Amino acid sequence: MRHTISILVENEFGVLTRVAGLFSARGYNIETLNVAPSLDATVSRMTLVTRGDERVIEQIKKQLNKLIPVIKVEDISHLVHIEREMLLVKLATSADNRAALVSLAEEMRAKVVDHIDIGYLTLELTGSCDELDGFLQQVESYGIIEMTRTGPVGMRRGAEGFTVD
Amino acid sequence: MKMTGAEILVECLKRENVDTIFGYPGGAVLHIYDAIFKQDAIKHYLVRHEQAALHSANGYARVSGKCGVALVTSGPGATNAVTGLADSLADSIPTVCISGQVPSSLIGNDAFQEADVVGITRSATKHNFLVKRVEDIALIVRQAFHIATTGRPGPVLIDIPKDISGESCEFIWPEKVEMRSYKPVTHGHPGQIKRAVKSMLSAKRPVLYTGGGILNSVGSAAMLRELSHALNAPVTNTLMGLGGMPHDDPHFLGMLGMHGTFEANMAVSHCDLLVAIGARFDDRVTGRLDAFAPDAKVIHIDIDPSSISKNIHAHLPIVGDVGEVLKQLLEEIARRDGKPNEAALTLWWEQINQWRSRDSLGFVQDADGPIKPQTVVRMVHEKTRGNAIVATDVGQHQMWAAQFYGFNRPHRWLTSGGLGTMGYGLPAGIGAQVAMPEEKVIVFTGDSSIQMCSQEFSTAFQYNLPVIVIILNNGYMGMVRQWQEMFYESRYSQSYFDSLPDFVKMAETYGGTGIRVDSLEELSPALDKALASHDQFIILDVAVSKEENVFPMVPAGAALNEMVLS
Q: Quick check: A151 contacting B, CB < 8 Å?
């Protein structure tokens, strides 16, 4: 089963390698991994998506907690939570199909972020992973020149926060 | 007061109560060696290979209960140390290793004797640090010792670039060390303690299965014995846990697992309650997982949450320091004035004694025949009354030492249990002898293992360490040969030495004494001579029966009750 895990870590040299190294050393799979500093500059927040049965996920959480710079780990998959991912996709266009693509983008709430010449269009879309997958399917026929996704970030719903204290 | 990084390091080590370092100098640690030269509170022992520095620090830590410390140079110095670090990690032994690094400005330039040591040792340490500013040294040393010695202990490496150990700054000693991301739980959950005691008192067929955690938590061994007696429950030790229970206590079943006793493995296979204390259900202990303790409710006490329910599901997990939890359990039993289920236990002990009567460690020593390796270990036990410090290498001799030495006390047994490092024994024995100069230190080794660390005889000679090295010489890599005999139709691929060195001459070359023992009648006098010598190391090269196998044996992947007895 797919699990989304939030991790707070000390914002220090080598911590990303420690997390990634743990997964490779123990044969776990990282599907996506997103890292950025948090409000507190000494803390980084990671969102990691992995797959495994309950026992594997339990071990992953324990092994993450065992890493010295890891402050807190939470598997948000079991909670009511929000996940969002951002996509940038560069599509081949021509005078004939460009208008159709722009209106499709508007309909899907994707933003046009780059369009210097007629031969391409770069779109930005934020949504759930499934929404991004669906969007990509719809625009595939235009010809995808390149695309990049951030991997999801997530947090639980409700007033409670996931912070160091 | 301004001090150099090297001086700060040495000062911090003193404040961490370090009085002994095992190490080997080189370019990147010369500032540190100079600071060591200028003081005499810390004694440095010069090893002959960096791997041995880590093994000696490990042996020192195991018998003294203190943190072992090693010092190595950059590049090859540090890469040589990796095996020793991995060994301490597998066996949870508190060690701090300081490595030199090329100057900060050269890092990443493929400089002379440069290696990405923090990268290489990341998975061989509990944690590691690269020092980037001289001002950080004191706090990092403090954190390193804190991490190495608390929680589940382990090795920590501090990599110090040469410019940092040469620069100066004001020395400030951090009085407290607190890490928001590292706070091991030591106290057992009170509700879990109550539930555990309830299960223990009502169990019909309990077994206490204990590991290295009993030794890592000082004072636990006595409480383990108390608990076993209060519950009238049998105790079995893992290889790492030997010494946790006196060998002659009637409640002790011996070691369990691949080369465990019949009674220990059968008791585990038939118990209704298995209490794992500071043990981690290693594959050499469990055999086939789905057949391990099939009828048992499992209580697992461990300071490392990731050990719990990793291999075997724990019905009742207790995270905490083994010593604290044992104390809590004993208090709870006393509070309830709890008595175990004696009627059921009487039947259980009858069954256990029946298994015991198989005498699975029995062997026959023919008076005229070749010396059996078991005879040697047994005789050493008798002559030292089970009180010696015993170190081993890895292989058949290690298992015979584990099966036949018989320990009275904890912190006397040094063996590479998790990593299985050939070459561990001699340097570990040296470290133990440094920590306990008055004690007898015996190293059981094989003709193959000893050649992986024999340069350390030079260290033993330099410091007049009277380590007694007993080579159970069968001319084979015995355990490899045994597996080849049993599982590869006796095709002895590369497991035979036809060009062994003359170990007597080796001893003499390095400045010690060597005695060759070929027949049974020579054995006892040779051992007496070795045990009487106090000034220098001695090698007993004992010719033992060549194709003796270690039994009982649970073949890899078989269930614990599928033992080969002979």
A: no
* Domains of chain B by residue range: 2-170, 190-356, 373-543
Alpha helices by DSSP H, B241-366: 262-270, 283-286, 322-336, 342-356
* Whole-structure pTM value: 0.96
Cβ contact B298:B274 at 8 Å: yes
Q: Residue B539 has which token pair?
A: 């090698």
Among B136, B181, B281, B304, which would you mutate to test the A interface (most chain A Cβ atoms within 10 Å of its Cβ)?
B181
What angle, 0 to 180 degrees and rounded to 10, lies between the N-to-C axes of helices B425-435 and B50-64? 50
Residues A26 and A66 in one domain: yes
Q: Provide the total of helices (H) and of strands (E) in chain A, helices listed first.
A: 4, 9
State which residues form the domain around A34: 2-79
Closest alpha carbon within chain B to A13: B130
**CA-based nearest distance B398→chain A, Å:** 29
Q: How far apart are CA B486 and CA B551, in angstroms?
A: 12
Structure tokens at B92: 């949870």
In sequence order, what E strands does B373-501 have?
389-392, 413-414, 441-446, 468-473
The CA distance from B331 to B338, in Å, is 10
Nearest of A86, A87, A88, A80 to residue A4 by alpha carbon: A80
- Return d(Cα B539, Cα B533) in angstroms, integer: 11
In angstroms, the CA B44 to CA B417 distance is: 27
Q: How far is CA B500 from the centre of its chain?
A: 28
Residue type, A108: M
pLDDT score, position B218: 86
At A102-136, the pLDDT tens digits run 999 999 999 999 988 889 999 999 999 999 999 99
More confident residue, A60 or B1: A60
As a whole number of angstroms, the distance between CA B255 and CA B149 comes to: 27
Contact between chains at B304 and A66 (C-beta distance less than 8 A): yes
Tokens of A129: 């992973």
**Which burial class, exposed, middle or buried, applies to B485 when counting CB atoms under 10 A from its CB (0-12, 13-18, 19+)?**
middle
CATH number at residue A139: 3.30.70.1150
Q: H helices of B287-423, where?
A: 322-336, 342-356, 373-384, 396-404
Closest Cα in chain A, distance from residue B111 (Å): 21
Touching check for A14 and chain B: CB below 8 Å? Answer: yes
Which residues on adjacent β-strands are paired with residue A75? A5
B181 and A25 within 8 Å at the Cβ level: the answer is no
**Inter-chain contact B122–A18, Cβ cutoff 8 Å?**
yes
Final residue of a structural domain among A79, A95, A125: A79
- We report the CATH number of the domain holding residue A10 as 3.30.70.260
List CB contacts (< 8 A) between A19 and chain B.
none
Region A150-155: what's the mean pLDDT?
A: 95
Give the best residue of A62, A68, A73, A164 to mutate against chain B (max B CB count within 10 A): A68
- Assigned CATH topology for domain B2-170: Rossmann fold (3.40.50)
Q: Which CATH superfamily includes the segment(s) B373-543?
A: Thiamin diphosphate (ThDP)-binding fold, Pyr/PP domains (3.40.50.970)
Percent over 70 (pLDDT), chain B: 100
Asked which of A46, A79, A112 is the last residue of a domain, the reply is A79
- Same domain? For A61 and A112 the reply is no
**Mean pLDDT across B215-228:** 96
B85-116 tens-digit pLDDT: 999 999 999 999 999 999 999 999 999 999 99
Q: Does domain B190-356 fall into CATH 3.40.50.410?
A: no
